[in-house]
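Okay, is this right?
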Amino acid sequence: MSLDREAAGRIADEHLRRWRTGTTYGELVQRDLHRSTVDSEVTEGGTTYRVSATVWREQGDPAMVMTVKVKRAGGGLFSRSVLRQGRMHPDGTYVDGL
């Protein structure tokens, strides 16, 4: 069965929105240092999706990159996915995308 990109996009958007509004820059830095990726599963419309939330900082850039990737649970390494990204700056401002 193929990926429902609309449903996966809604899930990714909601996870990124909750993440950016519920965390601080300092918490993102700590997460990057200790456990940069957290995986979870969500079921919508009878389909289970794997949600991977990852944070990292590019060398020389103080902004933390927040990435949410959604794909069908049980899909292989190269299965289709939906990706949403944003950047949080040290002053707490947030910008969608890279």
Summary: The two ends are 31 Å apart (CA to CA). The chain has a mean pLDDT of 93. The CA atoms of residues 9 and 82 lie 6 Å apart.
